[in-house]
Amino acid sequence: MEILGIDIGGSGIKGAPVDIKSGDLLADRYRIATPPGAKPHDVAKTAERIAKNFDWKGPIGICFPAVIQQGIARTAANVDKSWIGTHAEALFTQATKCPVRVLNDADAAGLAEIHFGVGKGIKGMVLIITIGTGLGTALFVDGHLVPNTELGHIEIAGEDAELSTSDAARKRDKLSWKQWAKRFDVYLNTMQRLFWPDLIILGGGASKKLDKFIDYLTVDAKIVPAESRNEAGIIGAALAAATLVTKD
User: Fold this and answer.
1) What pLDDT, in 10s, does the model give residues 42-95?
2) Beta-carbon contacts of residue 105 (< 8 Å; ≥ 6 apart)
3) pTM for the whole thing?
4) Which domains does the chain have, with CATH numbers?
């Protein structure tokens, strides 16, 4: 079964058809720079261009940097604030003339990891954390997604966690990996006290340096690096749109 997956980011919008049985991309990714300002109409037109590049007529899955509730964007990260309150699914459906499912970008990356990565077949609670400009999270129970968790924004010591714990914060504050790991360890232990995950999967840019800080982490849960990388959003978005196939 083939579904077009599109990953919308603050700097680039990329897409490719995906075999959702294997997780393989069936063509090279097609990427277009995100329009300046990333306003709804312009981003929708860019998604339309990607669909036309593949001469696409079927279902489309789109991951987006926002909380998506019943197809409506409730937040906006690295895109124009006018997205807030916009019915993203309706907008993209109108632009592409295809049925569209929209979901949060961290949730999409998590779906890819749960279906085809180190999270595959894991029972219980799995927490996926992407460490980059912020802290993206995806939470799964027995393989089922709990959408829009936004756990990177939990308050620790009265401060939004990602402001002090993201990879951007590490670079901004010129921290060594050991110094940063102490902050991240506080965050992980907070997650453990709240959710008791059986497995924590770390993604994002910092996860590639896991060997530099894992020895400083004290959380009891098993920690592993994500296997899915740059294609995770596209793959997860396509997976999320699989339910559209049975409807049409």
Assistant:
1) 999 999 999 999 999 999 999 999 999 999 999 998 899 999 999 999 999 999
2) 7, 8, 9, 63, 64, 65, 136, 233
3) 0.92
4) 2-107+231-247 (3.30.420.40), 121-225 (3.30.420.40)
> DSSP string spanning the chain?
-EEEEEEE-SSEEEEEEEETTTTEESS--EEEEPPTT--HHHHHHHHHHHHHHTT--S-EEEEESS-EETTEE---SSS-GGGTT-BHHHHHHHHHTS-EEEEEHHHHHHHHHHHHSTTTT--SEEEEEEESSSEEEEEEETTEEE----GGG-EETTEEHHHHHSHHHHHHTT--HHHHHHHHHHHHHHHHHHH--SEEEEESGGGGGGGGTGGG---SSEEEE-S--TTHHHHHHHHHTTHHHHH-
Residue 179 sits at φ, ψ, to 5 deg, of -65, -45
